[in-house]
């Protein structure tokens, strides 16, 4: 029984994240999507809002669960006895950032392996920060995020 974790900010979740989740859940018996809550970071959506959006997106996949985390990700993995961390990679910039992060995590927690999964070509330029920027200018979000996320974004930006 192999459990893996897919950690991220998911601020907000996009079709790029969902694609990695769908492909990872086909490779591992169980996948835990970890919603990171880093006190040093400013998020558009609260951890609870991000958790609810993600939970809605994966609700039909019986081997995927969603868990918030306000500690180091490797600590949560150790507590949950999960030995594999999945990270999505879009390009060489992601790769260089992700490889450093994985080395740091390896030093902190040698028992955990990071597995990289390449994005699908259609999602190569899709990132949460661009989605937020586009939403702030009321741009078309279809094809980037599901309708519930697009609605949540519209609500956020119509308030401010
Ligand atoms: P973002 O870069 O979109 O803000 P997160 O910090 O939430 O993403 O990332 C969580 C994980 O998802 C990271 O491993 C990131 O590289 C990956 N990821 C984000 N967008 C994509 C995408 N379009 N295709 C593949 N992986 C992605």
**Secondary-structure element order, N to C:** EHEHEHEHEHH
How is the largest sheet built, in terms of strand order?
Answer: 3-2-1-4-5
Per the principal axes of the C-alpha atoms, what is the gross shape? Answer: globular
* Ligand species: adenosine-5'-diphosphate
User: What's the CATH superfamily, by name?
Assistant: HUPs
> Roughly what fraction of the amino acids lie in strands?
15-25%
Number of helices: 6
Overall number of structural domains: 1
Let me know the number of strands. Answer: 5
Mean pLDDT: 96
Helix content: 40-55%
Specify the biggest β-sheet: 5 strands, parallel
- Name of the top-level CATH class: Alpha Beta
CATH arch. level architecture: 3-Layer(aba) Sandwich
Query: Mind telling me the C-alpha Rg?
Result: 15 Å
Instruction: Report the CATH topology name.
Output: Rossmann fold
Uncertain segments of ≥5 residues (pLDDT<50)? Answer: none
Which secondary-structure class do the elements indicate?
A: alpha/beta
**Kindly, what is the distance between the CA atoms of the first and last residues, rounded to a whole number of angstroms?**
46 Å
3D structure, described in words:
The chain is α/β, with parallel strands linked by helices and about 160 residues long. The protein has one domain: HUPs (Rossmann fold), CATH 3.40.50.620. About 45% of the residues lie in helices and about 20% in strands. The protein has six helices and five strands; from the N terminus they run E-H-E-H-E-H-E-H-E-H-H. The protein has helices at about 15-25, 45-55, 75-80, 90-110, 130-135, 145-160; strands spanning about 5-10, 30-35, 65-70, 85-90, 115-120. Helix 4 (about 90-110) links the parallel strand 4 (about 85-90) and strand 5 (about 115-120). The longest helix has 17 residues, at about 90-110. The radius of gyration is 15 Å and the shape is globular. It binds adenosine-5'-diphosphate.
């Amino acid at each position: 029984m192999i459990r893996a974790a897919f950690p991220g900010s998911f601020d907000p979740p996009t079709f790029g994240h969902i694609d990695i989740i769908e492909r990872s859940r086909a490779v591992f018996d169980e996948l835990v999507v970890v919603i990171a809550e880093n006190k040093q970071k400013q998020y558009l959506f609260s951890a609870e809002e991000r958790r609810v959006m993600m939970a809605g997106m994966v609700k039909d996949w019986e081997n995927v669960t969603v868990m918030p985390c306000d500690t180091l990700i490797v600590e949560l993995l150790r507590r949950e006895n999960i030995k594999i961390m999945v990270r999505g990679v879009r390009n060489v910039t992601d790769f260089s950032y992700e490889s450093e992060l994985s080395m740091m995590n390896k030093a902190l927690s040698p028992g955990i392996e990071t597995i990289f999964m390449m994005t699908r070509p259609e999602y190569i330029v899709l990132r949460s920060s661009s989605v937020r920027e586009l939403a702030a200018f009321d741009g078309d979000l279809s094809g980037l995020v599901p309708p519930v996320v697009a609605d949540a974004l519209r609500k956020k930006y119509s308030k401010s």
